[in-house]
Amino acid sequence: MRITVIEDNVGLAHGIAHCFVDQGHAVNMLHDGQAGLDFLLQEETDIIVLDINLPTIDGLTLLQRLRASKIMTPVILLTARGEVSDRVRGLDAGADDYLVKPFEMDELDARIRAISRRKSKVEGERFEFGELTYDKSTRQLFAHDQNIPLPRRELAVFECLFDRQNTLVTKSQLADFVYGVGADVDEKVVEVYVSRLRKKLADFNVMIRSARGLGYTMDLPK
Q1: Looking only at Cα atoms, what is the longest distance across the chain?
Q2: What is the pTM of this model?
Q3: Which of 61, 149, 179, 184 has the most CB atoms lying inside 10 A of its own CB?
């Protein structure tokens, strides 16, 4: 899952990122409202964790502009404001949930899982690809009803390729998906994860093809 954190408290942003990167998610971090808006208008993400008090433009304005642009990505607002009126304003602006600072990281984690489950139910939870079935709500991969356990990084690579079936995905796109946009990651690390994943999926007639110097494509044998 791709999570974008827009929070001007750098220490808090890094704490949130560490929590979710440790679970195998990709995290994009921004610390400025305008920069966050520009990023979200160009890049895809699964969930946005958004602080209200941001420099340049505030979180509520950012959220309103996202919704006006028909970007309906789920948003959890973070704020030090605990008044009911502020929560109502946030929800009316298009937020999916609201968390008042200070909060426990476990609570943010639980709320993100809940939003992810709701989103999966709307979109449909299970997707088939050849002999494979992928459950997005639980992030589990199956073949003939048997679970295929994947380490978290390999699972993230699978998710990226699975979401772009039969489409060329560059190494840099994979690195951004697995680690977050702008992360300092050697592309050779991505090659290792792809190689391991390729061997596991080959048993189920799912191919990861290499385009030398370009990237990878996941498809079914013709």
Answers
A1: 59
A2: 0.69
A3: 179
